[in-house]
Structures are given as C-alpha cells and as structure tokens.
Amino acid sequence: MRVFVTGGTGLIGSVVVAELLGHGHTVLALARSDASARAAREAGAEVLRGGLADLDVLRSGAAGADGVIHLAFANDFSSPEALARAVTEESEALAALGEELVGSDRPFVTASGTPHAPGRAATEADPVPTEGPVGGRGRAVTAVLGLAARGVRSAAVRLPRTVHHHGDGGFAGVLTGIARRTGVSGYPGDGTQRWPAVHALDAAVLFRLALEGAPAGSAWHAVADEGDAVRDIAAVIGRRLGLPVEPVPTETYGPLGPIFEADQPASSARTRQELGWRPEHPSLLEDLENIRP
C-alpha cells in the first residue's frame, strides 16, 4: 500500500514508518519542518509538507493514498488552554482525513489511548473517555470509528500511558524530564497506581497489522506491560539519575495530574488473539535502564 502517515518522524511515527517500509509498503509522510522533511526522506519516505492545521494538505495526502495512519499531536501539556488547542487541532485534522476517505473502503488507523476501567484492567471493549482533560480526543476517535458506517475501514490503536524506546517516551519520559529539572524522582499519590506500557517497536507492528487487516470500526490495545506501579517506575528513574525518590503534589504535573494519579492498567488479550500481535521487545522497567545519568 501507499500509506499517508502524519507524525511520521516522532518517537512512535519513525518506527511505524520503518515497519511499513520493511514490509513492502511505501510511505508519504507529513512534514511540518525542514528537519522533519529531511528525517522522513532519510528514512525512505516521500514527503508532503504541512502540519495538522493545513486541512487541504491533509486531504490531498489522503486522496493519493491507499490508507492513512494518524500519529501526529502537538503534545503541549503546559496549560489546560494549550492542551485544549492541541486537542481541537487534532480533532479537525481527523475529521478532514475521514471525510476524504468516505466511501472508499480504505483503511484509516488513528492513535488513541487506553481507557480507565475502575477496579480492573481496561479491555478493547471499554469506551474511551469523552469528558475530562483529553475528552476531546476520545470524541474525535469515536467519530473516526463511526466512519465504518460510511465506507471507511477505520480502526484505533490505543496506546498505553508510556510508549518507550531507549529509555525515553510517554509518561515515564515526563517523569524523567521533571526529575532532571527538579532533582527529585517524584510520583503523585502513593505511587501504587499502575500504568500500562509498550515498546515503540512493538507498537509499530500493531499499527501495521491494523492497517493491513483490522475490521472496520475496531479498537485494539498496544499493551505489552499491563501495569507497573508508578513508584516502581520512579525508583528506576531515581536510581539511574542518582536522585531521591519521593511523592510529589499532583499539581506538579499540570493538566495531566488527575490522569497521572489514576490507576489505569490495561489488557491486550483480544488484540493478541485476534490480530496475532506478539510484543517481544524489552519491558518498560527494563528499558528505563537505558536512561543516561
């Protein structure tokens, strides 16, 4: 397939592009900057210049592709307002991409997040939240899955709280960055809350599998580690950086604080059974050993 990929030069996107190219697909990568365009070309992809706000560019990329994988997001968590702007930008982009694919039966795979299921591990059957700090993303992804009724083979790959590679990435990467700035490897609450995780290389395989064969309107969990206690994550970070490990106020994490404090394990049993996905790369706690002091 010729696949249009947004966010193709990020931590996840770069390995998704490599996975696609390695399995005989060609890639058209959206690139907002000269540096991103150069990285995409060096990886072996064609380049379409533009950003998520350039809706006509997105439509043209989708129009000339056999399938679309959406991974781009502003990742600005500096304030509730910045997060809201990022969510709105992505929602409009997803709507534009989806409308271009209506009636084509082409695959449209978007990144999502694993939901919270109180008292148990979330499954692929649980709905994503449509309220709260990132509720807008849930509403946008739900709309994408609804395109199954309009002739789009839409699917969502739900990513866990940490997608990691070489000891960096996701919420664990946020903890590492804050630890470096503050001199404390902190965690919110009592630290017993669990975060699921997956290695980026394993997540990339699932995006390819969903593109190639996921049924329309389906959701899948890219979860390798069902849930590590956050204080265990902080302990590895603290040891690698030579810093004390302590609880810190939830407010330390800004608009993500309530999410960071929640217990949110997730299962991928259905994904493994139905798509044949088998994660094989290091776990989060193993990969965090790659953090450089």
Protein described:
By secondary structure, this protein is an alpha/beta fold. It folds into two domains: about 1-160 and about 200-225, Rossmann fold; about 165-195 and about 225-265 and about 280-290. Helices cover about 40% and strands about 20% of the residues. The mean pLDDT is about 95. It has helices at about 10-20, 35-45, 55-65, 80-100, 135-145, 170-180, 200-215, 230-240, 255-260, 270-275, 285, and strands spanning about 1-5, 25-30, 45-50, 65-70, 105-115, 155-160, 160-165, 185, 195-200, 220, 225-230, 245. The protein is globular.
Summarize the structure.
The protein has about 290 residues and is an alpha/beta fold.
What layout of secondary structure does this protein have?
Elements: E1 2-6, H1 11-22, E2 26-31, H2 34-43, E3 46-49, H3 55-63, E4 67-70, H4 80-101, E5 107-113, H5 135-146, E6 153-159, E7 162-164, H6 170-182, E8 185-187, E9 194-199, H7 200-213, E10 218-221, E11 225-229, H8 230-241, E12 245-247, H9 257-261, H10 269-275, H11 284-287
Parallel strand pairs: 1-2, 1-4, 2-3, 4-5, 5-6, 6-10, 7-9, 8-12
Antiparallel strand pairs: 9-11
Helix pairs in contact: 1-7, 3-4, 4-5, 6-8
Shape: globular
Question: Counting H and I runs of at least 4 residues, what is the number of helices?
Answer: 11
> Share of helix among residues?
40-55%
In total, the number of strands is 12
- Give the radius of gyration: 18 Å
Largest sheet: 7 strands, parallel
| Percentage beta strand | 15-25%
Low-pLDDT regions: none
CATH architecture tag of the largest domain = 3-Layer(aba) Sandwich
CATH superfamily of the largest domain: NAD(P)-binding Rossmann-like Domain
String of helices and strands: EHEHEHEHEHEEHEEHEEHEHHH
Order of neighbouring strands in the sheet with most strands: 3-2-1-4-5-6-10
Query: What count of domains describes the coordinates?
Result: 2
The N- to C-terminal Cα distance equals 42 Å
Protein name: SDR family oxidoreductase
Organism: Streptomyces tremellae
Biased composition (Basic and acidic residues): 271-293
Domain NAD-dependent epimerase/dehydratase: 3-213
